[in-house]
């Protein structure tokens, strides 16, 4: 995935309710699935409520799994109730795109 070096920094300044005003990359579900943490050359991504977040640098997502309960490369909408925290945690990671239906 090619990303400009300023996009992640810009995205990190935005909360989960807004992605950066930069042109956002659109991800299909198949593209998102390739960012599951199994390939160290690609970023680790998750989707939530139509937005795609880069969790590569988030320790709990090491190797594409969140404490063994959730897997990267997937849409987590509707699955946050299974976690000990809420969606506010996504404000800590960059929003890098949108998920296509």
Explained architecture:
- It is built from 2 helices and 6 strands, in the order H-E-H-E-E-E-E-E.
- The protein is an alpha+beta fold.
- A 4-stranded mixed β-sheet has the order 1-6-3-2. It has a two-stranded antiparallel sheet with strand order 4-5.
- Strand 4 (65-66) and strand 5 (70-71) form a beta hairpin.
- It starts with 5 loop residues before the first helix and ends with a strand.
- The relative contact order is 0.28.
Q: Topology of this structure?
A:
Blueprint lengths: L5 H7 L12 E3 L1 H5 L11 E4 L2 E4 L10 E2 L3 E2 L23 E5 L2
Parallel strand pairs: 1-6
Antiparallel strand pairs: 2-3, 3-6, 4-5
- Roughly how many Å is the radius of gyration? 12 Å
**Helix-and-strand structural type:** alpha+beta
Please report the distance between the alpha carbons of the first and last residues.
Answer: 20 Å
Tally of contiguous helical segments: 2
Question: Approximately how much helix is present in the residues?
Answer: 10-25%
User: Biggest β-sheet, characterized?
Assistant: 4 strands, mixed
């Amino acid at each position: 995935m090619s990303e400009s070096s300023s996009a992640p920094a810009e995205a990190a300044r935005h909360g989960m309710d807004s992605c950066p005003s930069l042109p956002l990359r659109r991800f299909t579900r198949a593209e998102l699935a390739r960012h599951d943490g199994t390939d160290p050359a690609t970023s680790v991504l998750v989707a939530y409520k139509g937005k795609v977040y880069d969790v590569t640098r988030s320790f709990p997502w090491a190797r594409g799994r969140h404490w063994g309960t959730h897997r990267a490369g997937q849409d987590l909408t509707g699955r946050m109730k299974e976690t000990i925290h809420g969606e506010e945690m996504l404000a800590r990671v960059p929003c890098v795109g949108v998920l296509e239906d």
